[in-house]
């Protein structure tokens, strides 16, 4: 490590910028975003601030005269960007005066370098490569961006606001550190990261005995996490973070092994799913397990296939948690219907052709018998059916009887986004046979004209009139 990262206090004095053109503009944007007072020597004499907003432009002192002889008293740093030879001369002068100087892309002339920056308010991460490769620095920054919650800066500001009053109440350093760990890793931290600052403040204020709070095991909470349809790369960044933070994960059958691989190594994993035809452990028992885990201070994740609120009983689970006074939050996932549609290129809506979507479940024939099929006959409606494999004959009958055309394109998308995905397409009249062709679930049925635009349809019908006509009509 040749360069030690330090953070400059930009309130301590002005920063001098020497240069012109796009390089100087880029530095202006950076300095203004950091609230710096900038004294700019434009080497071409043109202080172009036309691309800055008025308030920012006002914060720039447009310096005239020669920077090589200008007064540099109180200046905290000098940046040269697009300054040519003047930059080199300026660097020499800065060294004599002992002012930190950076000449863009010229480490040999610089006494400091400007890092790639992740800026989340009070939380700032600086990434440097010792001036060797700005591109590598940017790639590292992108990874860190993805790892850090968007509101991590709010968490730091929150702790900052309460720092002194907690310090007064908890003079013991070790106890204070425990206190802050409980706050930041527990429901209060989760509230801040979810944008619920007032809830967090209320919870913090309600801690009457900070020593007891710090010494307790800490409060647990439950995060309902949508795991998506199977491909682990379809997890959201938030979902991944929750899996990495969990003490215990209660997961459904539909959650793929590749996704369980992303769970923190030492987290306990508890299967709570039910397979079709076999009883699971029961919804009440699941509620009990979640509540017990949180009450014993654990960070519990309830990991569900697809999205927790789409045919996933997520609504019942949060009602049970609320009733038990357990803190929780919900992270959405990509529901299987959307995963299947994206993978097989079924545009679920399409200008003029498909204006509405219905998500429907038809688990058993009796469920399917309860569906009001007459509400699904609109030709411009795409129907996405969950758990519809065994009820496929009933679904076909229901739609045909209600008046939907037997020629309506349909697709059966099994194990969507997984390595063994299989899609078959055809007409509504053949739906039960199509469902048999995919061999096993889980599978989504999509019914509607847009299926004729899908990749499997195009592959199966290279000269198909329907798709040709549809394309020509565009
Ligand atoms: N909450 C889940 C749905 C749970 S219901 C979600 O939002 O996706 C279970 C049904 O989801 C299955 O019967 C099947 O219809 C569908 N499903 C789940 N994963 C699937 C996958 N990878 N491919 C196709 N269908 C899937």
Automatic annotation (TrEMBL):
Known pathway: Porphyrin-containing compound metabolism; siroheme biosynthesis; precorrin-2 from uroporphyrinogen III: step 1/1; Porphyrin-containing compound metabolism; siroheme biosynthesis; sirohydrochlorin from precorrin-2: step 1/1
Entry protein name: Uroporphyrinogen-III C-methyltransferase
InterPro entries: 4pyrrol_Mease, 4pyrrol_Methylase_sf, 4pyrrole_Mease_sub1, 4pyrrole_Mease_sub2, CobA/CysG_C, NAD(P)-bd_dom_sf, Siro_Cobalamin_biosynth, Sirohaem_synt_dimer_dom_sf
Gene Ontology BP annotations: cobalamin biosynthetic process; methylation; siroheme biosynthetic process
Keywords: Cobalamin biosynthesis, Lyase, Methyltransferase, Multifunctional enzyme, NAD, Oxidoreductase, Porphyrin biosynthesis, S-adenosyl-L-methionine, Transferase
GO molecular function: NAD binding; precorrin-2 dehydrogenase activity; sirohydrochlorin ferrochelatase activity; uroporphyrin-III C-methyltransferase activity
Domain (Sirohaem synthase dimerisation) ranges: 151-204
Catalytic activity: precorrin-2 + NAD(+) = sirohydrochlorin + NADH + 2 H(+)
Similarity comment: family membership: Belongs to the precorrin methyltransferase family.
UniProt keyword Transcription present: no
Gene3D superfamilies: Cobalt-precorrin-4 Transmethylase, Domain 1, Methyltransferase, Cobalt-precorrin-4 Transmethylase, Domain 2, NAD(P)-binding Rossmann-like Domain, Sirohaem synthase, dimerisation domain, Siroheme synthase, domain 2
CDD domains from the UniProt entry: SUMT
Annotated Tetrapyrrole methylase domain residues: 222-431
Listed Pfam families: CysG_dimeriser, NAD_binding_7, TP_methylase
